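Reply to dn_fold:

You asked what the input looked like. This is it:
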Amino acid sequence: MSELRRLKGLLPPELQSWVTVEVTSAVNPPLITSEEIGKDQVEIQIDLPKWEQLATDQRNLLFWHEVGRVQNDTIPRDGWEMAALAIGLGGAVGELWVQDGLLLVLALGLSGFAGYRLYLKNNGEKKLREAIEADDRAIQLATRFGYTLPNAYKSLGSALKTLIEQSPKKRQRSKYEARLDALKRSAAKAKAKSKGDPQYS
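and this is what came back:
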């Protein structure tokens, strides 16, 4: 549990009162994930056996990626959309029987809106963009906790390469590869912008 205490120490002070770090109890869980567990309370969950196979710098940057998701308000939530979709579809079927046109239109409208929200939530491009933005946050947090910019990029890049090697599913690998490509472009831009900065020499 010393690793959990160490990770809690990597939380920015402004998050320490409402973000907790725990070992996941899920079956076949992701390496690290976050979820809202109550109003204004977020839990970052890690799969400790897999987690401890990574180098400390890799863990730090992946942890800050998840913190970045919290800061960007892009962590998954138990949304109302599935319930609304079920209610809307159930209502639509019911109204077909009683033949109330207005209620049928309202039920179909609710279903359509909920379905659209679900599409947006699960949209691959949007999720990738959110992951890349969280990687940017992770780099910022690393420098805030004493990393040089080049070392922050190297550590996160190394972590992503390890995840690519360890991912059996092609779809998951391609997501990590896209994040790594975006990270390389970001590092190149940062290096160009900071030419002459001693930390890059």
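The CA atoms of residues 15 and 157 lie 25 Å apart.
Hope that clears it up.
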